[in-house]
Every structure is written in C-alpha cells, then in structure tokens.
Write a structure and sequence with these properties.
5 strands, two-stranded antiparallel ribbon, 16% strand, 35% helix, alpha+beta
Length: 92
C-alpha cells in the first residue's frame, strides 16, 4: 500500500468514527435540558393547560407555570386589549 492510500484510509476511518460519536452523543442528550420556563416549554411543543396561570407540561412530566404580571390600572384603556380593569388591576 502506498503512503497516499494509507493516509486516505486512516482519514476515512477517523471521519466515520467522529460521525458515530456525534450521533451517539446527540441521542444521549436530554431534549428538555434547555427548557427552563413557560415560553421555552411552549415553543418546544409542550401541552398547555388552560388554567390560571396557564401551565406548560412536557412529556417527561415537568411543568412550567406562566408568569403573570398584574398591571395596575384606572380604566380599561390602561390594560392590554385582551384584559379589563377590575379593582385597579388588569385581569382577563
């Protein structure tokens, strides 16, 4: 075997080994590891419970409640369009 074909064979074996390691590693990584809040859970396809506050539940059982920020108001115009002003707080 010539030096070139030996080098090419070695290079090919190393590339295959690297690809196998990458695919094996990707399968072992937890797909939910980067999910830390309601928004990221929702984007990842978690189930949304219609409760107050809403909750997002992943297939592995983890749940993330939606963070609700109450806004003070004096009239309905002070609130977002999907809310109304009751007792000086914007509510749905």
């Amino acid at each position: 075997m010539s030096k070139n074909s030996l080098f090419f064979s070695f290079f090919l074996v190393m590339m295959v080994a690297i690809i196998v390691v990458i695919f094996t590693y990707q399968k072992s990584v937890d797909p939910y590891a980067r999910i830390a809040d309601f928004e990221s859970c929702s984007k990842a396809g978690g189930s949304i419970m219609e409760s107050y506050p809403r909750q997002c539940i992943l297939k592995n059982g983890l749940s993330f409640p939606e963070r609700v920020v109450e806004t003070e108001c004096r009239t309905k115009n002070d609130c977002p369009t999907d809310q109304t002003c009751i007792n000086f707080k914007c509510t749905k």
